[in-house]
Design brief:
CATH class of the largest domain: Alpha Beta
Structural class: alpha/beta
Family: Belongs to the bacterial solute-binding protein SsuA/TauA family.
Strand content: 15-25%
Largest sheet: 5 strands, mixed
CATH topology of the largest domain: D-Maltodextrin-Binding Protein, domain 2
Organism: Paenibacillus roseus
Pfam family, one: Phosphonate-bd
Shape: globular
Order of helices and strands: HHEHEHEHEEEHEHEHEEHHHHEHH
Number of domains: 3
Keywords: Signal
Number of strands: 11
Protein name: ABC transporter substrate-binding protein
Oligomer: single chain
Distance between the termini: 21 Å
CATH architecture of the largest domain: 3-Layer(aba) Sandwich
Radius of gyration: 24 Å
Helix content: 40-55%
Strand order of the largest sheet: 7-6-8-5-9
Length: 358
Amino acid sequence: MKTPFHLAAVVIVIAALLTGCAGGANGGADGNGSKAAGASGSKEQAAAAKANDAPDLSKVTLRIGQTGWPNWELGFKEAKLDDTPYKIEFSVFQGGNNQLLAIAANQLDLAATSEIPPLFAALAANQGNFKVIAVQRGNTLNQELVIPAGSEVKSVSDLKGKKVAYVANTTAHYFLIKMLEENGLTWQDIEPVQLPTSEGLSALLSGSVAALASYGNSIISARQKGATELASAKDILSGNFLIEASNDALADEAKKAAIADFLQRLSSFHNWTRKNQERWAEIVSEQTHQPYEEALGTLKEGEKQRSVELVPISQEAIASLKDVADVLRKVGVLTEDVDVPSIWSEVFAEQLKNLKSP
């Protein structure tokens, strides 16, 4: 398979520039301005440019983080997109906040998070050492506030004075605030318990908390163990999931080229899942222990709500993030204002514009 984004465009531009320079140089050197000599020289210099300027991706290891499901490593293998000219180290984190902590520590090159973690990371030392480079539009299913089997809680308003587990600095944090507001409660009206996804699920099932605000596999597992939805965030969240790259990776030409290639493959993977829903549902079922029909139904429902696709940075996406920041700032969860536009980078804008839409 041909490797996308092999910097061909860059090489062509450099070659064209060198062609002009070569003609002038030869004209001065031999006194006759020979077009043949200029053409020969331009070809040689173009070849040299290609050999010398194209990064050697074989020496690159791209460290990529992700949260829960879908598992890109399995997906790339199934879709036959794993023949990368560079190495990939995939790591799964319990939240996007932890991915950005890893980027800040230069332990990760690429992250995939919701809109919430970058806001907190931007207030850390060195502004978190990252830039948002792309938006992954997707569905907002499996983002829920759930209660355990047999709970006496019937509505969000019933949570007043009760313990509610949530994953800090994530979509769960944000949509729990919004759900409380929509039901006449504030953050101060509940006893919030900050827990990672797995511990939050354990707390819910043991009865240590009255409800759990979470996402992904923990919500799937909670349902399998009898938990039920108290409220859904599918109409609260924007569906914008952000791709962040470390400043260190963006400053490295070879890693930047590898990231460009990876974005193309990620887009191709999304297209593959749309065309192979039954096969992907089988894999999801195997990995999450969901019944196959339920996994397939979730895929189809998610596609109906919003197709997953990579899109370029837009003013609408930046405005959406600003709205989230304003909400979190208003309730005191964000302690400082965030310069939202400053954390975005359009370094891959042209590549993203050329990706195929679903």
